[in-house]
Amino acid sequence: MTTETFVSYKSFRWLWIACTALLVSGYIYWLDDPIGGRNGGTLVGYALGVIATIAVVWLMAYGLRKRSYHSSLGTVEGWLSAHVWIGLGVLVLVPLHAGFSFGINVHTLAYGCMVITILSGIWGVANYATLTTKITSHHGGAKESAVVEQMHAISEELDRLCAGKSAEFLDIFNAYNFSFHPSLRALLKRNSIPAIDSKRVQQQMQGVSEQESADALTMIGLLDQRIDLARGLLEQARIKALLKVWLYIHVPCSVALCVTLAIHILSVFYFW
Fold first, then answer.
1. How far is Cα 158 from Cα 262, in angstroms, rounded to an integer?
2. Which of 22, 40, 130, 148 is the most exposed place for a label (fewest CB within 10 A)?
3. How far apart are CA 91 and CA 227, in angstroms?
4. Residues sharing a CB contact under 8 Å with residue 182, sequence separation 6 or more, in sequence order
5. How far apart (Å, rounded) are the C-alpha atoms in residues 228 and 219?
6. Which residues in the chain show pLDDT less than 50?
7. Distance of CA 176 to CAs 50, 197, 200, 212, 228, Å?
8. Please, how many CA atoms are within 13 Å of residue 129, restricted to the half-sphere of its CB?
């Protein structure tokens, strides 16, 4: 049985609504043949512009609905589905409104802000849909604090094993020991913590005395476990960063869209 998502909400209800609206708008645009050519200043152009403006304002309202936990105006999943499909529809509706006429002006700037806002929003939603499950899946869903405590316990056990050991023993430890300090560089670079090289370890084990070999194998297992835990923490941090970084594009562009759209509307009425 296929699981319903915000994309396929109610058998793609909002996709069909958006496509129907675009087909009707496209048909009216095709039938219209005004003097001077199609543009945003014709009757059809103004009508499509009003519809596009209402759609943009409604898209902005999603942020309010998402935080209205006791609202009865539909489900958040339904609003999100409409947010995505109507947003994509507006990308086509606005060029119809303008008669596909763009220039270096505030009107085109408003459309550019809208494009970036909608696409960045869809990218953010897609990340939430695909990445959030990966956060809880790491290490059986253990929280970061529990993983850090586990790593601390492993570090203490490693310190106990290394106490009074030979230089050959410590060479293996030093080759794969690391200080865990999450940073931007570590987040950007995958596998910043190197895995244990089994061939190299086998060669290093040849120099370890028979009395220390059992402890050396235990140490290698603990190091491998500590590396795995640290990599998991970095991956979770990387995912959380991806879930937030899009907001630094989406929110400013949303504000810029509101400002440029207001200027666009005011200037049109002023010069009309």
1. 63
2. 130
3. 46
4. 233, 234, 237
5. 14
6. 1
7. 63, 9, 11, 18, 12
8. 16
Q: Which of 160, 143, 118, 122 is nearest to 236 (CA)?
A: 143
Residue that has been written with the tokens 């119809």 in this structure: 96
Dihedral, CA of residue 26, residue 27, residue 33 and residue 36, to nearest 10: -10
Which of 207, 229, 230, 226 shows the shortest CA–CA distance to 218? 226
Residue with tokens 């049985």: 1
Alpha-carbon gap, residue 173 to 7, rounded angstroms: 50
Token pair listed for 37: 């050519």
pLDDT in tens, 210-264: 889 999 999 999 999 998 888 888 888 888 887 788 888 888 998 999 899 999 8
**Which long-range contacts (C-beta less than 8 Å, at least 24 apart) are formed by 156-161?**
157/222, 158/219, 158/222, 158/223, 158/226, 161/215, 161/218, 161/219, 161/222
What is the pLDDT at residue 141?
55
Residues 6+ apart with CB under 8 A from 126: none
Percent composition of the chain: helix, strand, coil (DSSP 3-state, to 5): 75, 0, 25
